[in-house]
Design a protein that fits this description.
Number of helices: 13
CATH class: Alpha Beta
Largest sheet: 6 strands, parallel
Order of helices and strands: HHEHHEHEHEHHHHHEHEH
Low-confidence stretches: 152-163
CATH topology: Rossmann fold
Strand order of the largest sheet: 2-1-3-4-5-6
Distance between the termini: 9 Å
CATH superfamily: Alpha/Beta hydrolase fold, catalytic domain
Mean pLDDT: 87
Shape: globular
Number of strands: 6
Number of domains: 1
Length: about 270
């Protein structure tokens, strides 16, 4: 475990189809669970009208290739504990082994699920966590640390059906404390099934997250526009670190182009070959 697979990621992205076919049969008999991130419900709704979307390209590929999947329905603005229970239910209802692909806060929700019930570990074939703030994001601390911003955020999140617990769950101090408390259990599940973390920073590309990216950079260095690079790597997991990918690109149309089918094939290949 704890391998840097960045070089392999770059090589496989040049021809993901041929690599993925060598591990394709490992997906047979499994179901892929897609766990979306923060504010995903609004984006999923917008996707129905031709804007936004979330995991749409991945789902189109899975449907075309007859790969079983489900996009887990969660209230992404709710707490990790609440969403963790929904993810556990989705794993149990699958009644077959699952592979999990999570994005952003969806990875924190998944982590809560995995830690809360080790009995599901033998049902998980592997987990790909994309741009998850395992060690928090300074933008959550900034919002919660200023009264006016916190009140506005609380109103907005309540309106969206959630609460500011979702921001509290992404605070840097809280996440680091939780990692320490759960260190031994995390290392145990990393031995039970393979995990791959994808971490990125936007590099020189111009995106709609540029302003937030600069705010985070002043406190935590390079980031994807919401999550600091090193925060997205869970200690003990295999990982990829790359540049030129902002926080939206892996799951939806963005200012810069990323072939999300090729991207997902590459990450699944790296997971399945381990």
């Amino acid at each position: 475990m704890n391998q840097d697979l960045t070089k392999q990621y770059q090589e496989v992205m040049n021809d993901p189809d041929i690599h993925f076919e060598t591990v394709r049969e490992k997906i047979d008999g499994h179901r892929i669970l897609l766990v979306p991130g923060f504010l995903s419900e609004a984006l999923i709704t917008a996707g129905k009208f031709g804007f936004g979307g979330y995991f749409d390209d991945q789902m189109e590929w899975f449907t075309r290739d007859r790969i079983e999947y489900i996009r887990v329905s969660i209230e992404s603005e709710a707490s990790t504990e609440e969403n963790g229970q929904k993810i556990l239910s989705a794993i149990r209802r699958a009644r077959k082994p699952v592979y999990i692909i999570s994005h952003s806060k969806g990875g924190l929700d998944t982590l809560d699920a995995v830690l809360s019930d080790p009995s599901v570990w033998n049902q998980i074939g592997g987990w790909v966590a994309i741009q998850t703030p395992f060690y928090g994001t300074p933008i959550a601390d900034l919002i919660l640390g200023q009264k006016i911003l916190r009140l506005k955020a609380r109103f907005f999140l309540t309106l969206m059906g959630g609460s500011d617990a979702s921001l509290l769950d992404m605070q840097v101090t809280k996440r680091r404390d939780l990692q320490k408390v759960n260190h031994d259990r995390i290392q145990k599940f990393l031995k039970a099934f393979p995990m791959l973390c994808f971490a990125s920073h936007a590099g020189e590309i111009d995106t709609g997250l540029e302003l937030i990216r600069k705010v985070i950079h002043d406190q935590a260095g390079v980031n994807d526009g919401l999550v600091p690079l090193d925060s997205a790597i869970l200690e003990g997991s295999n990982f990829v670190k790359t540049s030129g990918v902002d926080h939206a690109m892996p799951v939806m149309e963005s200012f810069e182009k990323l072939d999300r089918e090729d991207f997902t094939k590459t990450l699944l290949y790296l997971l399945l070959k381990s």
